[in-house]
Amino acid sequence: xxxxxxxxxxxxxxxxxxxxxxxxxxxxxxxxxxxxxxxxxxxxxxxxxxxxxxxxxxxxxxxxxxxxxxxxxxxxxxxxxxxxxxxxxxxxxxxxxxxxxxxxxxxxxxxxxxxxxxxxxxxxxxxxxxxxxxxxxxxxxxxxxxxxxxx
Length: 151
Description:
Helices cover 31% and strands 26% of the residues. By secondary structure, it is of the alpha/beta class. It has a single domain (3-150), classed as Rossmann fold (3-Layer(aba) Sandwich), CATH 3.40.50.10110. Strands 3-4-2-5-6-1-7-8 form an eight-stranded mixed beta sheet, with helices on both faces. It starts with a strand and ends with a strand.
């Protein structure tokens, strides 16, 4: 069974944190889905990923193209279309316990200063851990990522 890591963003925004986590996941050899709730927001994230440094290029694509299954990183609002090892949930996108169980890792990235996002992450933590998923909660409040809770 896979584990789900919760990342509370408080010092750096999603567009800075996501490429770092994607780079680590790609370094592990994983295929990744970035699942969001809004197609326009994912299109914006797609643009941000293209603006990254050349030496840290992250091959990726938006869902809906002819080569979704071949994408090492696929940005989508729907189900995984590239047989991922890791799903990164952004903007409150849902993860199910069954999905987490079939992954090497799942990640939930949320804005810690947004009360609604924080409440949504807490609901996901409760639902996933009560279903038996291993979980870790990471915070960057101190200026570096630290694990604050594990279940």
